Amino acid sequence: MSPIADVSWLFETSALKIAPAGSPFWYTSGLIGPYYINTQFLCGGADQAAGVLRLIDAEQDRHETFHLRMTAMLEQVHASHPVFHDFIDLMVASVASGFPAGDIDYVSGGQRRDWFFAPIVSQKLGKPMLYIYNDQTVRLADGSTPASLQGARVMNVADLLTVGSSYTKKWIPALSALGAELRWSLNGVDRLQGGVVNLTRAGVSRVHSLFSIDLSLFDQALARGCIDRAQYDMVRGYIADPFGSMRTFILEHPGFLNEARNSPDERTRMRAATLLKEDLYKL
Question: pTM value?
Fold first, then answer.
């Protein structure tokens, strides 16, 4: 029997982290919100994911051996970590049940966080892997750069789908330049910020994600005891109105902004300054 997506995976690995109800997170933009998503943490948790990222950073330009090193590490995590094991098995099962697996010529993944998932999915599907770099270079598993991929049909495996800009600005053009077509998209998490619509417009025929950041996910999280009622209510308000809910929070909790302006953490101070300077919440 194929594994079923379990919301507790996100919380067990800290791939989805919810702020305490009275203390939303500061985002880089200067906005605030109730959750962070680090989908790569599904790869064995934060510490193991950091190790995978170190390998990527150290080896990604050693093209002849990179694929072997990546797949060896990912296989080790798959064998030892139950969440990553079931998550990858679910990705593979999703292809078998929802994609024309026989039509897929290649699995691709974009630099860098797609590489936490795409190489091992390609291996388990028995499909050759394409590594797409940010400069739109495409490399095969042996490290070579193909002169042409004319007519190849590709499924991209990604960690996170937001608006799909990495797909439309980098991954799709890189493959198209070689004559290949990115036809399918398989993602760990969809933030539901318009990515499916944008990918469909770009010619991707099927987009599937294992988790979607909607209220039903948090309903499950509350039922499973992953979050408390106050956190749930904060997230529910944010999903309904990200701007209005956080503006109301700031107005009702003036001490929150004052504390941030005087925080010992430099990043927090800078983000609070950005909020005030750009008047992001029309205060």
Answer: 0.94
